Protein: Mannose-1-phosphate guanylyltransferase
Amino acid sequence: MSETFWAVVPAGGAGTRLWPLSRKGSPKFLHDLTGSGRTLIQATLDRLEPLAGERFLVVTGQAHRDAVAEQLPGLDPARIVAEPSPRDSMAAIGLAAALLERQDPTAVMGSFAADHVVTDPDTFRGVVGLAADVARDGLLVTLGIEPTHAATGFGYIRLGGPLAGHEGAFMVEEFVEKPAAALAEEYVASGSYRWNAGMFVARPSVLLDLLAAQDPDFAAALRGIAADPDTLDEVWPSLPKIAIDHAVAEPAAAAGRVAVVPGSFGWDDIGDFASLAALVPATDGLAVLGDASLVRAVDSTGFVAANGGRVVAVVGLDDIVVVDTGDAVLVTTRARAQDVKQVVAELGESRPELT
Amino acid sequence: MSETFWAVVPAGGAGTRLWPLSRKGSPKFLHDLTGSGRTLIQATLDRLEPLAGERFLVVTGQAHRDAVAEQLPGLDPARIVAEPSPRDSMAAIGLAAALLERQDPTAVMGSFAADHVVTDPDTFRGVVGLAADVARDGLLVTLGIEPTHAATGFGYIRLGGPLAGHEGAFMVEEFVEKPAAALAEEYVASGSYRWNAGMFVARPSVLLDLLAAQDPDFAAALRGIAADPDTLDEVWPSLPKIAIDHAVAEPAAAAGRVAVVPGSFGWDDIGDFASLAALVPATDGLAVLGDASLVRAVDSTGFVAANGGRVVAVVGLDDIVVVDTGDAVLVTTRARAQDVKQVVAELGESRPELT
Structure:
């Protein structure tokens, strides 16, 4: 692994799908959601440290800067970049790229969300290392997760031909949107598709030049902020709100500039309580997060988070989801876990302090 | 209605089947479980006051005496009889009978548990009035509830022939235990059975003499306490622990000494959360007790008690039961509501302060 690998960690997210565990003021990356003893952002940095050493840039909202600094005492606070407001992933990752472009002309950067889970970090690092090697050749490189099921909640990457000189890497034929169930089945059965986990590796200037090819003003604005950080607050609100996938990855793939390194390392983005339940150790089918000594279960399977300090008793329920916190209790099922956002939307109107 | 009708109100119960709403230290009669604005014991006295005026005896545990007095500010505290320990219904009701036998030789007493619900109090009072008329003739009289379904959770009363001189009253052929489902169906289909709600009306001396016919020492001990109340603490622990049904009602029925007045007045003993759910007003199939402004429901039916001051969100669940309190949360279904007692039994070992 080259000494110039930098890990960029965007730490954002609305925190609505894991409510009431995560909140606007306390998004999921600040929580230990798997009972590992480390919060998701801590685990993200732990996982990348063998590659990046101290070369991190964490991009987060101003509201979360202090909490991030507190959770990462080993990180130089100057490595925490605070966004004045959320402007989606292109602005966040692009700003990091612009800063690194000036700071370290030899840098290869990889961007990894602060709120994902990887259960096999060794394999993960191997894949990232290969992606960094490819990125040095001037390509944008993405990681393609081997699908474990026909997920409809992720976008997919269609593999092209193998990449000469980099065994295990392929060109990207195209990125495709989240598919309907039947199409997802086809994708997985074909063997030619991987999940798009939104992890990109590139030389900073390559990333910014690819952006400039689509939106020169956007790239120039990011480079301008990096040249004069005092302009951040003024320029930031004018930046487009767009995901890096749409701004760069899709057009670059169409132009033959994107490679993919497929891998299988137990990745999950914990998109809802059904995903989370699968990541938490279970006894007799019941996964328990928080203080397990508070949980009393009779003939029940599913997921219980006991984070409210109170006893949580569950009797005769299958695939139940119960989340107890100090000011709110959620009861749903694995199958309906996505619909928690309806509750959060309503509370945003009636009790915004709880969201 | 004669001016000598006395209402005896046994206020006891273990409080395990409605945990965590009710507790050992705060049994269900102390709670407003139907959202009526009155606790069950308050509603019980409200319902009987047109018949009994101020002639009440409330028999409760010493631990609950202060709470009962506080909830019934209009009741002369001397009318609250505190049992030194729980010794089942024969001791509690028999002590009241012995006290009344000395206090008012013209008394007819009716015994009505403090934790039952009656939704049609006018009809209830009419039935009790008729029972009191019959009781003056020297019979033990019970109220027989018209079954609304083939319940397996109640004992039944088999009607005998009509009672001459008291239209609407019948002799009791026999009391039968809680039946299995098929037998309950037969009972209800026959038209000859009524639910035994444990409500008895009799002249105190008749009740005590019927007891004496079975257990002369027991009756003598109760009359001895009434003659010298200072002996209560000493004598009480030696009294048999037996239900009034077994001690008196069943043998008296076999001896042709028990009448029944059938009636239909919306009676329920709130034996579990399934019963309670049916008594609480529902919107779109979801019954809410406590602070309804805390409840957020999406596609859900069943019962939610929001007694913990926190938001309770329920998403995509049918016939769910969620009970939120300050120190415990219960999640179950209407069908499994009876199994809450398993949790309470376990907590009795591990966290007795919560039971």
